[in-house]
Amino acid sequence: MNLFWHDWAGLIGVTLVLVAFFLLQAHKLSGQGYPYQVMNLVGAFGILLSLIFGTFNLSAFLQEMAWFLISVYGIVRGVKAKKAAAAPLL
């Protein structure tokens, strides 16, 4: 079995998403924490690469694109919340 770079990207992506979900369920990660969000972001990106450069599947692509965008949203929201909490009161 010959695996190409995009196959490895997809396998690593799936592993990251599943490990993040397991750690969330095991209460080892917070759903609002950066590690969880980044693991989902990078994992979804790896899966997207495997779908774009490997065998394309529209439903899987749409799911992973949503997963990626939701992860971006979570990270941006976390950064904004952190900045708001650190802002001095007038």
Automatic annotation (TrEMBL):
Coiled coil (UniProt feature): none
InterPro entries for the chain: CBU_0592-like
Keyword Membrane attributed: yes
Every CBU-0592-like domain range: 6-81
Bilayer-crossing regions: 6-24, 36-54
Pfam families, alphabetized: CBU_0592
Keyword Transmembrane helix: yes
Keyword annotations: Membrane, Transmembrane, Transmembrane helix
NCBIfam families on file: CBU_0592_membra
Protein's recorded name: Membrane protein
Source organism per UniProt: Luteibacter jiangsuensis
